[in-house]
Amino acid sequence: TLAAALGRTQRHWDLVLEQTHGDHAGLVDTWMHYGKKSGWILKVAGKKRAVLWMSPRKGRFLAALALRDDAVAALQDSGLPAALVEEIEGAKAWPEGRPARVLVSNLDHVRWIRTLVDIKLGD
Fold it and tell me: What pTM value is reported for the model?
């Protein structure tokens, strides 16, 4: 189950979802299975686009977003760690945007995800 896979980071998972839904009304969670390699992924989406994907790992989870050019430009003034900003800026641009990935294992990572979601949604 999810709790068994996440272990102590279950509280971080719950907090990311609580903050995301609390800050941005109208989002819907959908579990999707993308095959044996990717496994189960929780997709958080609004009416027009996916906002956040969360994939459980053993003792942590991967949170991912796709950021368009305007959101990537806003990262410079975000207060996010320089290494994360550089990673996102240097990532290959896809039609949905540049990937922003955080392997979440502590509360700092939860704050980073909240900042990324706010930037993505223009807050």
Answer: 0.93
